[in-house]
């Protein structure tokens, strides 16, 4: 999955001048993809936004259980792991909830065990390369999101060496932030303010200097879905 997004981003970069400031937004497990792309892609991003990202790996489930999951996933990759959370537990917007159950493009079925294991296992790669995350990073999450373990999120965020990291926690919000009936405007305003603050930042890229610096271009936001 990350390889596919990487190839897609290479094509996107070709359509824009080198000085264009790019940002990656990852929601849910898409945040793992955003972080891995930030570490992989040579051109680099001006920053990464994490929206409701569950920052935990297989080991957080316990050594015995994680080994059992990996073995089971290799034998029966299409086996249903189950429902992590009911959709109604993840969003407060009633219109969005209704759309989630009626729109065929919105998957509400059980997660397969193989991709679930791979997603969590890939987080190990992110942790091993944590010291390379020196670019601006914004974390957005709701205080009542059942999919997040606050202690894991806090430990991960504190371990990032970047000097340009910001965390926003919205009281009462669930997993779906951007259509929250009470805080959606505030969340979008915070996101836009952060983008404009960092679009002209002149920080050193972790792999190379490709001339991205202060510029007047509008920021380009690419979303990695979960």
UniProtKB/TrEMBL annotation:
Transmembrane segments: none annotated. Pfam families: Hydrolase_4. Residues 1-182 form the Serine aminopeptidase S33 domain. InterPro entries: AB_hydrolase_fold, Hydrolase_4, MAG_DAG_Lipase. Coiled coil: none annotated. PANTHER family: PHOSPHOLIPASE-RELATED. This is Serine aminopeptidase S33 domain-containing protein.
């Amino acid at each position: 999955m990350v390889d596919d997004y990487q190839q897609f981003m290479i094509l996107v970069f070709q359509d824009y001048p080198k000085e264009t400031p790019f940002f990656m937004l990852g929601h849910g497990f898409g945040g793992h993809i955003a972080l891995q792309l930030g570490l992989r892609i040579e051109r680099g991003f001006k920053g990464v936004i994490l929206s409701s990202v569950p920052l935990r790996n297989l080991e957080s489930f316990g050594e015995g259980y994680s080994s059992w999951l990996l073995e089971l996933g290799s034998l029966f990759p299409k086996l249903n792991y189950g429902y992590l959370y009911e959709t109604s537990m993840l969003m407060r917007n009633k219109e969005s909830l209704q759309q989630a159950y009626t729109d065929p493009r919105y998957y509400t079925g059980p997660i397969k065990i193989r991709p679930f294991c791979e997603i969590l296992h890939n987080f190990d790669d992110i942790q091993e390369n944590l010291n390379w995350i020196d670019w601006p990073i914004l974390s957005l999450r709701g205080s009542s999101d059942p999919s997040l373990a606050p202690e894991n999120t806090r430990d991960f965020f504190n371990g990032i060496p970047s000097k340009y990291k910001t965390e926003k926690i919205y009281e009462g919000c669930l997993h779906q932030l951007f259509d929250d009936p009470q805080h959606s405007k505030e969340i979008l305003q915070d996101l836009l303010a952060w983008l404009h603050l960092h679009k002209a930042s002149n920080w050193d890229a972790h792999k190379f200097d490709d001339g991205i610096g202060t510029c007047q271009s509008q920021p380009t936001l690419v979303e990695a879905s979960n």
